[in-house]
């Protein structure tokens, strides 16, 4: 098989917010994106979410990444089933689109989906202990779908001493090739955790997790009101930022470290309670302070980079929060800050697209991570391939 073969790939991502499985189609040779395709979403039901939360707790004591005690076995079955359903619903919804795309190069038509990239659900990430666990049975998924599935993307990197995250940088680099923005260009993902990729010419991308994304804001708002998030950043917009608290939080050791580095979703949970003065803060002031902390943590990575980025493109759920975007623009000035949509990309589907892209690279044994993205000793491929 020529290694620049263009394949159709579906990526599946279930992020730290435990909301559901995103699915996205990509046509790619693993180097450039040839075309984006339709996307889909399969939410977790409340009962499923409950089991996934229990699995997060039960994963805390894991020392063997293959063990599935407590709720972990049931949670893994849920992730696998939800992912299969996400693909099957996507195939049904896009039958007409696939027929047209599949026939685009004449008969015999290439199979429209050649491979599925299955991230699974991270329940534990402790790279310093060489431990990272993503729930999801790739073999069972391959059998059920009748398609090759690439899964367990982070294991090889962590086993080699890397951070195992972030893995999107190689996809960010491919995206950056097709946009005209002044470099260095930073691509920021604001999920539960925030991560950044800095692209500067032909050098390998420099990347790391930078701090809390939306997780602290979500948790605080949920504790106080029961709502899942500060929708539209409305609460934060009405509050006053406690700059002293932001400074105290930025004093944490993590922020002094240069990239590469990665984070567990709950890395700042305790610190935010202790140093953020949140117990005494009003709902609005607490949301404003945590939103400012997220923005300030992003800006704090700049001194660790060789050159400050001239432009920032923001993706992930946080790109829907105008207050967070405003605070980012203030703290990153004079750099230009814009959303992924402005660049012609998708804030909500970038991670699923990334795992479609990574699956194709894994099939061709191309590197998924680099010393500058996860700290692996040499560029490394990864992922496990399950064939039906
Ligand atoms: N309209 C909105 N207003 C404010 N915040 C929003 C909005 N939409 C999404 N978000 C935020 O984005 C979060 C979800 O982001 P995303 O889907 O990128 O996270 P994830 O993929 O689960 O996390 P990760 O990338 O860390 O795995 C929500 O929990 C919320 O905080
Ligand atoms: C261990 C793990 O699953 N980490 C996620 C999480 O969510 C965002 C951030 O933390 C990032 O490091 C990573 O996901 C993205 C997709 C990545 O690997 O690039």
From TrEMBL:
Cited Pfam families: AnmK
Keyword ATP-binding attributed: yes
Reaction equations catalysed: 1,6-anhydro-N-acetyl-beta-muramate + ATP + H2O = N-acetyl-D-muramate 6-phosphate + ADP + H(+)
Keywords associated with the record: ATP-binding, Carbohydrate metabolism, Kinase, Nucleotide-binding, Transferase
Record-listed ATP binding positions: 15-22
Protein EC: 2.7.1.170
Family matches, as SUPFAM superfamilies: Actin-like ATPase domain (SSF53067)
Metabolic or biological pathway: Amino-sugar metabolism; 1,6-anhydro-N-acetylmuramate degradation; Cell wall biogenesis; peptidoglycan recycling
Cited Gene3D superfamilies: 3.30.420.40
Gene Ontology MF term list: ATP binding; kinase activity; phosphotransferase activity, alcohol group as acceptor
GO biological-process terms attached to the record: 1,6-anhydro-N-acetyl-beta-muramic acid catabolic process; amino sugar metabolic process; peptidoglycan turnover
Function: Catalyzes the specific phosphorylation of 1,6-anhydro-N-acetylmuramic acid (anhMurNAc) with the simultaneous cleavage of the 1,6-anhydro ring, generating MurNAc-6-P. Is required for the utilization of anhMurNAc either imported from the medium or derived from its own cell wall murein, and thus plays a role in cell wall recycling.
Annotated family: Belongs to the anhydro-N-acetylmuramic acid kinase family.
Record's protein name: Anhydro-N-acetylmuramic acid kinase
Organism expressing this protein natively: Blastochloris viridis
């Amino acid at each position: 098989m020529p290694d620049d073969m263009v394949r159709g790939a579906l990526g599946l991502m279930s992020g730290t917010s435990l909301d559901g499985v995103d699915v996205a189609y990509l046509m790619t040779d693993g180097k450039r994106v040839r075309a984006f395709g339709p996307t889909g979403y399969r939410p977790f039901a409340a009962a499923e979410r409950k089991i996934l939360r229990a699995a997060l707790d039960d994963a805390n004591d894991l020392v063997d990444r293959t063990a599935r005690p407590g709720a972990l076995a049931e949670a893994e079955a849920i992730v696998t089933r939800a992912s299969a359903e996400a693909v099957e619903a996507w195939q049904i919804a896009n039958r007409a689109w696939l027929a047209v795309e599949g026939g685009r190069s004449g008969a015999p038509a290439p199979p429209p989906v050649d491979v599925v990239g299955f991230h699974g659900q991270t329940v534990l990430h402790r790279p310093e202990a060489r431990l990272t666990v993503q729930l999801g049975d790739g073999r069972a998924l391959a059998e059920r779908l009748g398609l090759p599935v690439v899964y367990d993307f982070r294991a090889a990197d962590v086993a080699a001493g890397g951070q195992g995250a972030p893995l999107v940088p190689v996809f960010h680099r491919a995206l950056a090739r097709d946009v005209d923005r002044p470099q260095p260009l930073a691509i920021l993902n604001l999920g539960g955790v925030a991560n950044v990729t800095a692209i500067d010419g032909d050098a390998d991308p420099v990347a790391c997790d930078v701090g809390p994304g939306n997780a602290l804001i979500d948790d605080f708002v949920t504790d106080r009101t029961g709502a899942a998030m500060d929708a539209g950043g409305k609460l934060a917009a009405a509050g006053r930022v406690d700059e002293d608290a932001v400074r105290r939080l930025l004093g944490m050791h993590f922020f002094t470290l240069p990239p590469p580095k990665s984070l567990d979703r709950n890395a700042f949970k305790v610190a935010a309670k202790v140093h953020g003065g949140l117990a005494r803060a009003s709902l609005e002031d607490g949301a404003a302070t945590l939103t400012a902390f997220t923005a300030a943590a992003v800006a704090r990575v700049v001194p660790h980079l060789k050159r400050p980025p001239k432009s920032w493109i923001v993706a992930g759920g946080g790109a829907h929060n105008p207050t967070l975007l405003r605070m980012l623009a203030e703290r990153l000035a004079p750099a230009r800050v814009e959303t992924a949509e402005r660049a012609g990309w998708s804030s909500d589907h970038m991670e699923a697209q990334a795992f479609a892209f990574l699956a194709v690279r894994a099939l061709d044994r191309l590197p998924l991570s680099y010393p500058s993205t996860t700290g692996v000793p040499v560029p490394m491929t990864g992922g496990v391939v399950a064939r039906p």
